Amino acid sequence: MRIQDILTDGRIHLSCEIFPPKAFSGMEQAASLTREIASLHPDFISVTYGHGTHSDRTATARIAHTISKEYGIPAVAHLTALYSDKAKIDEALDMFEEAGVSAVLALRGDYIDGEQLVGEFNHASDLVSYIRSVKPDFKVFGACYPEGHYQADSLDQDIENLKIKVDAGVTHLISQLFYDNEDFYRFLDKARAAGITVPIEAGIMPVRGAKSVRRMAERNASRIPDKLNTLLNKWGDDIQSLRAAGILYASEQIADLVAHDVDGVHLYSMNHPATTRRIWRNAEPLFRGTQG
Ligand code: FAD
Predict the structure, then answer these.
(1) Which atom of ligand 1 lies closest to the CA of 51?
(2) Distance from C-alpha of 169 to C-alpha of 244, rounded to nearest angstrom
(3) For residue 143, how far is its CA from the centre of ligand 1 (angstroms)?
(4) pLDDT tier at 29 (50, 70, 90 boundaries)?
(5) Is the pLDDT assigned to residue 292 strictly greater than 60?
(6) pLDDT over 80 (residue 291)
(7) How would you class 31 by CB atoms within 10 Å of its CB: exposed for 0-12, middle for 13-18, buried for 19 or more?
(8) Strand partners for 159
(9) 119, 254, 240, 141: which is closest to 200 by C-alpha?
(10) Which residues 6+ apart lie within 8 Å of 233 measured at CB?
C-alpha cells in the first residue's frame, strides 16, 4: 500500500522507528530487526539517518528498501541536512527513490563539535523547500517538539518556527518523545491555534533504563513527570522490573492518546523488538477500526 493512501484513510495510525546498526557488519542484525518489526504490521516504519560526515549514509536506504520492497510496508527515510550540500542531498534522495521510498522526514540534525558547517541548509525548513522543488511527489515529514526544541527560547517561539517549516511543504509531523501526555495536548492546542493543520504523530519511547531516560531528558530539555520518577527511583537498579514498568507506562500513555483521538502514535523501538512487541500487543487492539 502507498503511504499516501495510508495517511489519508481516516484511521489513527500506529507506526514505528528503527535505526541502522552502527557498523556495516550490523546489517545482518538490521535484517532480523526489520523482519521482527515488519511482522507487527505497522502503518509505516521510519528509518533514522546519521548526521555529520562520518556516518554510513547508505544504511537508511538499504533498510528502507527491505521494508518497502520485501515487506510491502511504507518506509519513511529520515534525512539530515546541516552537514550536507545540495549534491549530497540529491544523492540521498535518488537513493531513497531507487529504494522505493516516497516519504522523507526532513531534519536539520544536531550540531557536532569540531565539524565544519556547510551552510546550505541551516534549518529543516530549507531542506523541506528543497525536497519539494526536486522531488515534488515525495511526502515530506517534519519533526516537532511538544516541550519545545532545546535551542528555542520558548515553546511559542518554537511553534512559530514550526509553522515556517510546515508552510515550506511538510505534510505530516512526528513528535519528539514525551512522558506526560498533558505536554503533548498543550502543544497540540498551541500548534492548531497557530494554524498548523497537518497530522501530528505522537512519539512514544519505552523506558529501558533509568540513566538513559535521565540523560535523554537532560539533552532534550524535557521533563520527567513525578509518576515516571517514582518508577525510576523504585526500580532504577532492577532493570527487568523497570523495563516491565516501562512497557506498562508506554502502553498507558498510548491508550490515553488513542482515547483523545490523536492522529497517530509513533513508537521509538530503540531497536528492541521484544519490548516493541509487548507494547504493540497491549496497544494494537485499540487502533483497530479507529477513525482519527
Ligand atoms: P529545525 O526544524 O530546523 O529546528 C531546530 C531549531 O531551530 C529549533 O529550535 C527551531 O525553533 C529553530 N528554527 C527552525 N526553523 C527556524 C527558522 N526558520 N528561523 C529561526 N529558527 C528556526 N537526528 C538525526 O541525526 N537523525 C535522525 O534520523 C533523527 N530523527 C529524528 C526524528 C524525530 C521524530 C525527531 C523529533 C528528531 C530526530 N532527530 C534526528 C533529531 C534532530 O535532528 C534534532 O532534534 C535537531 O536538533 C533539530 O532538527 P529539526 O529538523 O527539528 O530542526
Answers:
(1) 25
(2) 40
(3) 6
(4) confident
(5) no
(6) no
(7) middle
(8) none
(9) 141
(10) none
Most ligand 1 atoms within 8 A of CB, residue of 101, 107, 122, 266 to mutate? 107
Q: How far is the CA of 129 from the centre of ligand 1 (A)?
A: 15
DSSP secondary structure string for all residues of 13-33: EEEEEE---SSGGGHHHHHHH
**Cα separation values, 227 from 79, 176, 220, 231, 246, Å:** 35, 19, 19, 7, 11
146: its cell numbers = 511538544
pLDDT above 90 (res 206): yes
Q: φ, ψ for residue 174 (rounded to 5)?
A: -120, 130
Nearest partner of 204 among 167, 170, 177, judged by Cα? 177
pLDDT digits (tens, 9 = 90+) for 96-124: 999 999 899 999 999 999 998 999 999 99
First to last CA, the chain: 19
Mean pLDDT of all residues in 274-279: 97
